[in-house]
TrEMBL record:
Protein's name according to its UniProt entry: ABC-type transport system, involved in lipoprotein release, permease component
Cell compartments where the protein resides: Cell membrane
Record domain ABC3 transporter permease C-terminal: where: 242-366
Keywords attached to this entry: Cell membrane, Lipoprotein, Membrane, Transmembrane, Transmembrane helix
Residues that span the membrane, as ranges: 24-44, 239-261, 281-314, 339-359
Membrane-topology annotation of the record: Multi-pass membrane protein
Alphabetical GO biological process terms: lipoprotein localization to outer membrane
Chief subcellular location: membrane
Amino acid sequence: MRFALFLALAHIRRRPLQSGLALLGVGVGVAVLLLALSLTNGFVDGLVRATLKAYPHLVLFSLTPELPPLPPHPEAVAQAPFAATKALLTRPAEPGRGPGVDFATLVGLGEGGEALYPELGLKLEPGGIYLGSALLQSLGALPGDRIYALSALQERVELRVLGSFRTGNYLIDSAYAFVDLKSVEALAGLKAQGYQVRLQDPWRAKEVGAEMAGARFYPQAWQDTQRTLLEQLALQKRVLGILVYLIVAVAALGVANLLVLKVVEKTPEIALLRAMGASRATVGLVFALEGVLLGLGGVLLGNGLGYLLGLYLAQRPLDLPGELYFLTHLPVKMEGRDFLLVSAASLGAVLLSSLLPLLRALRVQPGVVLR
């Protein structure tokens, strides 16, 4: 083992430029793959956090004409009756400002509604409205302005702009507004449809919903309403990982090419070692160790580069156009599980690519070469 390790290190040092390029190729491939996965993780996590700033963790729809009381639950930190409707928002023209018009989803919240979205800083009052930041800009409205909401029933309600909120999810910021429950009831002729609930752990919304619903409510967790999006993001991560993994595969072929050249170059030495008593296993172990050393070195280098690049982008996140993407910036979330999986898969690719030169070295016939 020591003899094989000595020869493997000697072969790697013999061609430092080629060995360094092979190691760098694996390292860059691993780093790019880790960075791509970290950016995808950050995108998904940032989207979920931004969405849940203004989206209920759990909705319990009432199955009875009258809204029944909601049973308490230890994981529910806030709850409030609600009703939601679509409406056309208009702002009349004023001197120096033209009119504004846009569609929006009005979410009417009853008592305790402000606690559902603590990050938005809502302070609802009768006849008041909080607009998403992009919606506010689309209407050209300012805090204190009077706007009008028109429903499909041709009912019209006058509202005063109390402020705006920004989640970072453009789809919400451009299409959602919060009002008091009575304003929605007057606009759409609705009664409270159920309860919105905020949980300690939003990922447990399905379990908590099933426990709270009973026979009087129909539970709807945020994962259900956002299921298509979450599935698309998960598929995107898998496809992106496979595509970027091809970079590692190409780098692994570079390692294989280097080892094949070494086998060809060292064929007389291999024959001489075999003639002096070295076994096939010893000769094969030399080239196997070369592949392991280059693979391990490339994986370690890639992990270091990927981690440093992730830290850099975490401090200086990439900006995204809100009109095209869900987020206004791209966060980074590095997960140890990704590092382990990428390291194992990359090392496996290098070892598999090393089988060809290993088999070539094992097929060397000392008698034929030395003759």
